[in-house]
Amino acid sequence: MNPLDQLADIQLPQEVSIWPLAWGWWISAIFVLIVVMAIVYATRRYMLNRQAKKAALAELSAIDLKQKKAISQINIVLKRAALSYFPADYIAPLHGPQWSAFLISQLSPKQQQRLESQLQGLVNSLYQDAPLISAEQAFSTAKVWLSSGLPPKRKTNLSADLKEAANV
Questions:
Q1: Which one, of 164, 158, 162, 145, lies nearest residue 80 by Cα?
Q2: How far, in Å, CA of 90 to CA of 56, rounded?
Q3: Rounded to an integer, what distance in angstroms lies between the CA atom of residue 129 and that of residue 88?
C-alpha cells in the first residue's frame, strides 16, 4: 500500500467573518456619522437663519409703491425683519434717530456711507406729510439693507449701540 493514500485531505480554515468589526472601523463609522450630523445641522441652521430674510424680501416686493402709506409699510417690513434677528427688548422701542442709527450700524462701513442719508430720510419721512424720499428710493434702500444687513454677520453689542444712538 502507498503511504500517500493514508494522508487526510487538507482542511481549509473557516472564512473570516466581517463581525465583529475592528476598533478602527468603529472609530471611522462614528467619525463619519458625526460629520454627517454636523453637515445636516449646519445646513438646517443656515436655511432657518435666512428664512426671515427671504420672507421680508418677499413682503417688501408685495408692497404697492403708489400707495400713500408705502414708506410706512416699508418701515414695518424692516422692523419685522430686525425683530427676527435681534432681541425684541432692543428693537421694539427704537424709533426716529435711534432706529435709523441701528439700521446704519448693521451695514458695512462702505455701505454706511452710501446709505446713511437714505435710511435717515426713510425714517424721517414716516413723520412728515411730504416725504423726504420717494417710495421707490425707500424700496431700493430697504432692499439693500435687507440683502446686506441681515442676517447679522457679527455679534454686536446692542446696548452700547443704543446708548450711542440715544446720544446722537
A1: 145
A2: 19
A3: 29
- Tally the residues of the chain: 168
User: Are residues 166 and 101 in contact, defined by beta-carbon separation less than 8 angstroms?
Assistant: no
State how far the Cα of 145 lies from the Cα of 151, in Å rounded to an integer: 10
pLDDT of residue 71: 93
Question: 2's torsion region: left (phi>0), alpha (psi -120 to 50) or beta?
Answer: beta
Residues of the chain above pLDDT 70, percent = 91
For residue range 16-34, what is the model confidence (pLDDT) as tens digits? Answer: 888 888 899 999 999 999 9
In the numeric block, which cell numbers belong to residue 37? 450630523
Coil, strand or helix: which one is 62? coil
Distance between CA atoms of residues 150 and 146, nearest Å: 6
8 Å CB contact between 71 and 122:
yes
22 CB-side CA count, 13 A: 3
pLDDT digits (tens, 9 = 90+) for 75-88: 999 999 999 999 99
